[in-house]
Structures
1.
Amino acid sequence: MNIILIGAPGSGKGTQSRMFIEKYNFVQLSTGDLLRAAIAQKTELGLMAQSYMDQGKLVPDEVMIGLVDGYMTSQAGKSVIFDGFPRTVAQADSLNAMLNKRASKIDKVVYFKINPQILVKRLTGRRTCSKCGEIYHIETKPSSKGHLCEKCGGSLTQRPDDREEVISERLAQFEKSTGPTIEFYRKNGSLAEIDSEQDPEVVFKQITKILDLA
Ligand SMILES: [Zn+2]
């Protein structure tokens, strides 16, 4: 099963992703990680990506799709969560074409709906463990160990892009690029919307139902 999670930064995608990885053995595809790995390993696609970046250009969609294709091969048989990709209609189109060739498809696209004011609150209070990536919140999910992670003792930090001044810019950016992508999946019938202002456990159950896992 291949699913896409779409939602503004802070809509709870990351938390749900982790829950599905833990409980249903999904793997998560992060194009950022794929790109970094390809560049570090100097693969053909990695070198291509590097040459664009050296010229200060964006890595073209074909290169990204090639990386995703390679990932799908390496994870064959596993259920994949796409998080943060595709961002644009062009990418969604190319992704469909690539999956088609593999006799595969996107089974469901889950859109995390949330009120922007709640997002700002969520994001500015968010703290992430610098060691294991566990996510906390100063109001709704504080660590019992203060500024240290409950799980591994790592220090909790605020991501630079979670600062208030950066957030409104990020949200505007999200609307602009992702709005049309959401419409794309709504039209092809794979979109499911969830109210992500609810408790994460409730959201998890709803997505489980949407995916027919329970
Ligand atoms: Zn930790």
2.
Amino acid sequence: MVYTSPKSGPAAEDIASRISALNNGSQAIVVQADLSTVEAPDKIVSATTEAFGEHIDILVNNAAVLLPGSILDATANDYAATFDVNVRGPLLMTKAVVPHLRAPGRIINISSIAARTGFDGLAVYSASKGALESLTRGLAAELGAAGHTVNAVSSGPVKTDMLADVPDKLVQIQLQRTPVEHRHGTVDDIAQVVGWLSDESSRWISGQTIAAGGGYQML
Ligand SMILES: NC(=O)c1ccc[n+]([C@@H]2O[C@H](COP(=O)([O-])OP(=O)(O)OC[C@H]3O[C@@H](n4cnc5c(N)ncnc54)[C@H](OP(=O)(O)O)[C@@H]3O)[C@@H](O)[C@H]2O)c1
């Protein structure tokens, strides 16, 4: 598990302890790394192979940033800050993991309904998720011969810290347009889909973007 903000350290350590406490052989390690830097992926992979051995089975590219605002206020630095984490991060993580990936490997990229829907104030973030979905298809084509699958999960609104950065009027529109119970998704709603895509039973699915948003987007 990777985090970057010092304030997230205790929460990450807590999840790692809870995973060990399951007593079913599962173990987790916590790595602090800044995925906006090009060095982070090698640091994460080294820590992982040191702890668990040479092979890696599953990579979930979840980290992302969202800097809301009008395009008139957006700067080149905002663009770089967004794309460095949301697009270059998954690209370099994949590059670092692939030499260790044991077939049938699984790569799952966390996208957003914003990739395919225009939201006022979220153009740069949306563009980064669109790029991530394209990257998913390209990687699926490239890595399939080795027996790996690469998919994206396009999340609808979920109650996390990130949602606090989405303007409230957009959140209200999103809830109205979510057919299933007109509610926010939960972390578990998304994790279930990621879990299935990580499982052997998803073996014939690759290059797909699975919409997990209570029907918000029917792709
Ligand atoms: N919440 C939603 O409504 C929603 C909707 C659609 C898609 N998504 C997607 O779901 C994924 C998870 O987002 P979330 O809602 O859980 O957002 P969040 O609460 O803001 O969490 C973002 C995560 O990314 C990590 N991160 C950010 N910048 C990083 C960096 N430079 N290096 C390493 N880690 C970094 C954060 O680590 P720290 O905690 O250490 O900062 C945090 O764990 C993202 O890909 C997001 O785009 C979320």
